[in-house]
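thread from #wetlab-drylab

HS: before we spend reagent money on co-crystallization trials with nicotinamide-adenine-dinucleotide, can we at least see a predicted complex? here's what I'd submit
DV: go for it
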Amino acid sequence: MRIPSIRLNSGHDIPPLGVGLFKLEQDETQRIVEQALELGYRHLDGARIYGNEEAVGRAIRVSGIPREELFVTTKLWRDEQGRQAPLTAIDDALERLGLDYVDLYLIHWPHPSMGLALDTWLGLEEVAATGKARSIGVSNFRQEDLATIVEGSSTVPAVNQVELHPRFQQRALRAYQEPLGIRTEGWGPLGQGKYDLAELPALGEIAAAHGVSIQQVVLRWHLQEGVIVFPKSSRPERLRENLDVFGFELTAEELERIRGLDDGLRVGTDPATG
Ligand code: NAD
């Protein structure tokens, strides 16, 4: 199945549905990435802190898929923040991945108490200029963190990757980002399994109306909202299910019902303190 791509402000295209690689051991990662690529996924969301970039690289090489057909993201960790650190951090990441470039390189967390977000961003701009990262962006940035780098640099982040699921929809942040051309990537799209989606009756009713699973409804909702997603699963049947969300369309009324499910439940770390 071919997933229609969307364009980032860098001029590069991204498949809006990928596979997440958080908390997976190396052996498991290689198997999952191989299976995901076999199923048709082309977008892999990784990070140095996930500790599995070598396995991602091995799976890519085993797949034989041409590099230009893949979209590979990785993220720098807090000890790689600062003006100079990203320039060596990217080389380390590329070595672990066995790649010449990544498609998207992100600052993983703003860590406001460190006060290094703008410096790190300026370093990332230099990384982009080398071609080692095709697009650059941020993750877990609040509006004030974004404002700091938008005002202090000449590059607008291509994406901001933030927690986003039916009970935590990030409406205010998205409204701020949209006119700037910053795409939203939603992590934990299924709530990281930390609450039971089935307890939201609207989702069950919408799923029944389309003959799909609740998880498929949620992922379809992200996509129709223009949010880029990469759910994680170690099970092949779920990888397949999560990819199979292009054969139905939610109505405007259904989208509105899901919009009404936001009660501000954050399941992950708060970037203000994280
Ligand atoms: P997720 O919302 O994707 O939830 C994963 C859980 O949902 C797993 O436990 C899995 O068993 C279950 N699941 C997946 N598909 C299912 C299906 N079809 N039916 C039933 N259950 C299903 O949470 P996540 O993995 O934390 O988020 C996705 C990705 O986002 C991560 O893998 C990672 O790449 C990224 N992420 C980024 C950050 C960040 O700080 N930037 C933080 C967390 C995650």
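DV: The radius of gyration is 18 Å.
HS: ok that's useful, forwarding to the group
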